[in-house]
Amino acid sequence: MRVRSSAIALTVDDVPASSKFLADHFGYTERMAAPGFASLGRDDAGVDLMFMRRGLEVLPPALREVHTAGTIIAFVVDDLEAEQARLRGEGVEPSLPIREEPWGERLLMVTDPNGVVYELVEWAEPSSGR
Description:
The protein is an alpha/beta fold and 130 residues long. It has helices at residues 15-26, 80-89; strands at 7-12, 29-34, 37-41, 48-53, 72-76, 96-100, 105-111, 117-123. The protein has one domain (7-55, 67-123): 2,3-Dihydroxybiphenyl 1,2-Dioxygenase, domain 1 (Roll). Strand 7 (105-111) and strand 8 form a beta hairpin. The longest helix is centred in the first third of the chain and has 12 residues, at 15-26. The protein is globular, with a radius of gyration of 16 Å.
């Protein structure tokens, strides 16, 4: 099997709101769109993101009314403080401010208008003695 590209599809109520949030705050570009659907990508990202409106007939019946939940889209960044400042300057308050885990993960989270959670990660040296 040859995988030519990868994408994650998320079901939301307001496709344009999630699409705009991803484009405005994370530099993604809308590559395809139709009523109830948007596909966005970045040339430097390994995975595209798609938003599908709940209830679309193209979805399997068991998934049509399911809202994406419990999924976190993670982006590894070089300067977490700068990203937090940039997002705040754009009017986006973290749903989880910067924190550092004992295993060396520094992270913050923001949430889009549909409840999709984005985690920005910067790897630090693990804390000693933990």
